[in-house]
Amino acid sequence: MSESVSEDAAVLQGGQARIGLDSVAVEFLRHADNWLFVAPCAAIAFWLVWSGLVPADAAWFVGGWLIFIPQEYFTHVYVLHAKPPKNEMLYMFWYRLHYGHHDFPKRHDLMYMPLWLSLPMTFANMAFLWAVTPDPRFFLASFCGALFGYIMFEWSHLLCHVPYTPKSGVGRHMRTQHLRHHFFNEKFWYAVTPSTMFMDRLLWSAGKPGGLERSEDCRYLGLPSGHEWIGKARTRFAARSSGDLSRSRLWLLSGRGRS
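RE: above sequence
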């Protein structure tokens, strides 16, 4: 691993909270795309409560959430970590989709899923849930659960990439596991949210650092570090950075972190 990546790992993994959780929440809500999922989820939940909850609402909500769990895992394994395409234009799409996130894990503009992936997956979930639910109310309850699962994924992912150390043991474990994926071996620890971590154990991707070799591909995911496409992708997406080409606002507020 390069010296800079090792230094980043130390910064991300060490120390106590340097910003408050309220700052993380504001950062989450500042990302406009998140409102496309937060707003309908909150509206459906409000309507379900206002109209009078029934026990089946909770069951369908949990069912919708459970449907999202394997999607989180398998999308990360087979889509986000697909082998680099042979076409430069397609590589640019994958750089925005996930390669750029591994290149600059402190840049939140490269961390969130792009709408050109998240919206089609949402519509596919809507179609599936409409087909399997017995009436519109239970469709809404299950769709609310699926939306909640996605929101929890993006929130948990953000918590792993900000200068804040969760206070709970579950939160710290989640963060440590995900940072191992970034800085130790990208072929393990694909699950992000605590509710999905059992899939790493189930599918043999919950590695133990002492039993694994440190990967040299954590940052570039299959291309050599000097490949011209990496430089072109960095230039193409530089303008989307929130004031620093290597780190986002919360890292600037904390005064810590490098690219």
